Amino acid sequence: MLTDHHAAEREYVLRSARDFDVKFVRLWFTDILGNLKGFAITVDDLEDALELGVGFDGAAIEGFTTDAESDMRAFPDPTTFTLLPWRPRRNAVARIFCDIRTPRGEPFIGDPRHVLKRNLERLSSLGYIYYVGPELEYFYLRDAEKPEPLDTYGYYDQLSSNPASDLRRDTVLNLAEMGIPVKYSHHEGAPSQHEIDLQYTDALTMADNVMTARLVIKELAQQQGVYASFMPKPFTGHNGSGMHTHQSLFRGNNNAFYDPDDDLHLSVIGKRFIAGLLRHASEITLVTNQWVNSYKRLVPGYEAPVHVSWTVSNRLDLIRVPSYKTGYETSLRVEYRAPDPACNPYLAFSVLLAAGLQGIAEEYPLPSPITADVAGMPAEERAARGISRLPTSMGEAIALAEDSALLRQTLGDFVFKTLIRNKKQEWEQYRSTVTDYEISRYLPLL
Predict the structure, then answer these.
(1) 24: which strand partners?
(2) How far apart are CA 358 and CA 3, in angstroms?
(3) Closest Cα to residue 355, out of 322, 323, 319?
(4) How far apart, in whole angstroms, are the C-alpha atoms of residue 401 and residue 108?
(5) Where in the chain is the domain with CATH 3.30.590.10?
(6) Phi, psi angles (nearest 5°) of residue 329
């Protein structure tokens, strides 16, 4: 039976659809890899969809088929209803994110959105809210066939790099119309690389926002005859694209990471959260960096984290606590710099939260922050200080993930096994493929 609150949300959606002349509603969800999926219904079927869900064949979706059944139902979440501003205003198109359920009405255990909601429910029972603010880096390219940049500019360059500067501006404006505020946007360090930082919000809303932002960026680029890519490392010799993720835990309006009496203004809760991220970083990397190409970014010399360390200043470490500004207690946060923008945000936020919570629950001790250049340290010194290295390949990441009790518990047995199986297939395909590098390097010599 619907509560008054849920009934009011449904009525708001139906009224908004009428007021804005909506004709089509796209029902969105993601597969296990974070690919956006969905289908459209007409506005005439929206009321039934909100109440009863819409059936579809899960067998066509990666990670959605169980041994028992493939029939699924998509239940729209009315709080996520919004217009697609780049579509015509007449006979408008809206989107709404869905929760996937079985025909019996139970949450589908393979739905990444459900995985995050389940972890957030656990967090809520502890009295916390999990806020995240990701920085999305990406490239504008001539087309999807080869990595040809549109410009040769670098960090914060202000020269007009048409169409890229207009595309970035239009993306920010479109996201704002969809209720997704952008904190910053600018040209990044590599040629034709850009960054859009989303204003922090609760983790479930942010995962939906990341999926929306990726589509908006790609959609607007396509309209201008260019291609936007979230591939972590499309260019040899240039920086790759990351998704640095800022995180904090709140109790009501109070930042649980803040302590006015600590030298770094970092509470015991915050320190243990960081300790959890450090201890479990390597085993969760398969989720935060899920593609073969992800590990081409996590190499020395390109501003990406390589070693498992934390700092309050250096922007090359895995974890950074940005400098505290007096009077801005709510802004104290932990920045985790490994993820790339091609991850599944629902799963990535889930494992980051779980690692941090494990540190709190088990009261992990936090080592002193690193003040030196970790990459420049002798290997012996790193070993003596307990500084390990992130996985250097997908194969290594798979092996670490497979043995992770934390990962299995966080994702659930079904998603855990499905993800490992999918990644093993990808790794074997990569290992058995002869690359252009091998041909150019070895064919003339051997």
Answers:
(1) 42, 93
(2) 34
(3) 319
(4) 23
(5) 117-440
(6) -55, -35
419/425 Cα distance (integer angstroms):
10
In this structure, the dihedral spanned by the alpha carbons of residues 365, 120, 182 and 260, taken in order and rounded to 10 degrees, is: -40
Q: How far apart are CA 330 and CA 332, in angstroms?
A: 6
Q: Give the span between the Cα atoms of 171 and 190, in whole angstroms.
A: 20
pLDDT tens across the length of the chain (446 residues): 455 667 888 888 898 888 898 999 999 999 999 999 988 899 988 988 898 888 887 777 776 765 555 788 899 999 999 999 999 888 899 999 999 998 888 999 999 999 999 999 999 999 999 999 999 999 999 888 888 888 876 655 555 566 777 888 899 999 999 999 998 888 877 888 999 999 999 999 999 999 999 999 999 999 999 999 999 999 998 999 999 999 999 999 999 999 988 888 899 999 999 999 999 999 999 999 999 999 999 998 888 999 999 988 766 789 999 876 777 778 889 999 999 999 999 999 999 999 999 999 999 999 988 888 887 788 888 888 888 899 999 999 999 999 999 999 999 999 999 999 999 999 999 999 999 999 999 999 99
197 vs 185, 291, 341, 424, CA distance in Å? Answer: 6, 22, 12, 32
Q: How many CB atoms lie within 10 A of CB 313?
A: 12
**Segment holding 248, helix H or strand E:** strand 245-251
The whole-angstrom separation of Cα 120 and Cα 129 is 8
Residue 292, both tokens: 């073969």
Whether pTM > 0.70 for this model: the answer is yes
How far, in Å, CA of 247 to CA of 129, rounded?
A: 11
CATH class label, 117-440 = alpha beta
For domain 4-106, the CATH superfamily is Glutamine synthetase, N-terminal domain (3.10.20.70)
